[in-house]
């Protein structure tokens, strides 16, 4: 085992579109979505242990250590290679709001898989890691694969979109946590929307079909959409929220809007990225 320590980014994602186009017999919804990364991130530190234990230095309050996605990712990876001697100390620096639709937990898990593949010198392929990631959550594979993508199925069937514009985003985090399960189980959610093509998205079909339900359940998110809409055209909800965002041509314009909105809201500015920063950090092509 290598003795080095790794400190790696776990970038957030935005859903630039989210369509609900069906439902599987097991209850999972069939989606069409577009993922893009931003340069706002959590940080994952991985230090090898010689005692074969997998430990989390700073468990989240109210979340048992064994339930944390980073620990689950490490255990899953170790089980997959069949070597119980592999150990790691995991430290998570959380910067992304929880329950905001930015994929923080999924990204943390993906960075753990990618980082431990390197730290433990396992040599598993990205396909193999993405397959493991899907067992942890539908959003984990896109973070493992590390490219902006068109997603279908439950979000795991990915087509790279390397030519997406990479604008500056203003992201606003309303003071609420969306219960994703409640949104997807709402009788008011339309589940048989028409499927579209990537070209339709590029031409401007960029709705989020969860937005009407989410705004009705969480009026503060509607207020947030309106607030961002004062500065950016076509403000959007990422995933089921709660975070909303708007795109800007320049960092200065995004920062000017952020200064005004920060009087009443929690906001940050981030750059859109079509390649994941953890892939860059690990030298993955």
TrEMBL record:
<comment type="similarity">
    <text>Belongs to the GHMP kinase family. IspE subfamily.</text>
</comment>
<keyword id="KW-0067">ATP-binding</keyword>
<dbReference type="InterPro" id="IPR006204">
    <property type="entry name" value="GHMP_kinase_N_dom"/>
</dbReference>
<dbReference type="GO" id="GO:0005524">
    <property type="term" value="F:ATP binding"/>
</dbReference>
<keyword id="KW-0414">Isoprene biosynthesis</keyword>
<dbReference type="InterPro" id="IPR004424">
    <property type="entry name" value="IspE"/>
</dbReference>
<dbReference type="InterPro" id="IPR013750">
    <property type="entry name" value="GHMP_kinase_C_dom"/>
</dbReference>
<dbReference type="InterPro" id="IPR014721">
    <property type="entry name" value="Ribsml_uS5_D2-typ_fold_subgr"/>
</dbReference>
<feature type="binding site">
    <location>
        <begin position="97"/>
        <end position="107"/>
    </location>
    <ligand>
        <name>ATP</name>
    </ligand>
</feature>
<dbReference type="GO" id="GO:0050515">
    <property type="term" value="F:4-(cytidine 5'-diphospho)-2-C-methyl-D-erythritol kinase activity"/>
</dbReference>
<dbReference type="InterPro" id="IPR020568">
    <property type="entry name" value="Ribosomal_Su5_D2-typ_SF"/>
</dbReference>
<feature type="domain" description="GHMP kinase N-terminal">
    <location>
        <begin position="69"/>
        <end position="146"/>
    </location>
</feature>
<dbReference type="Pfam" id="PF08544">
    <property type="entry name" value="GHMP_kinases_C"/>
</dbReference>
<keyword id="KW-0547">Nucleotide-binding</keyword>
<comment type="pathway">
    <text>Isoprenoid biosynthesis; isopentenyl diphosphate biosynthesis via DXP pathway; isopentenyl diphosphate from 1-deoxy-D-xylulose 5-phosphate: step 3/6.</text>
</comment>
<dbReference type="GO" id="GO:0019288">
    <property type="term" value="P:isopentenyl diphosphate biosynthetic process, methylerythritol 4-phosphate pathway"/>
</dbReference>
<feature type="active site">
    <location>
        <position position="13"/>
    </location>
</feature>
<dbReference type="GO" id="GO:0016114">
    <property type="term" value="P:terpenoid biosynthetic process"/>
</dbReference>
<feature type="domain" description="GHMP kinase C-terminal">
    <location>
        <begin position="205"/>
        <end position="261"/>
    </location>
</feature>
<protein>
    <recommendedName>
        <fullName>4-diphosphocytidyl-2-C-methyl-D-erythritol kinase</fullName>
        <ecNumber>2.7.1.148</ecNumber>
    </recommendedName>
</protein>
<keyword id="KW-0808">Transferase</keyword>
<comment type="function">
    <text>Catalyzes the phosphorylation of the position 2 hydroxy group of 4-diphosphocytidyl-2C-methyl-D-erythritol.</text>
</comment>
<feature type="active site">
    <location>
        <position position="139"/>
    </location>
</feature>
<keyword id="KW-0418">Kinase</keyword>
<dbReference type="Pfam" id="PF00288">
    <property type="entry name" value="GHMP_kinases_N"/>
</dbReference>
<dbReference type="InterPro" id="IPR036554">
    <property type="entry name" value="GHMP_kinase_C_sf"/>
</dbReference>
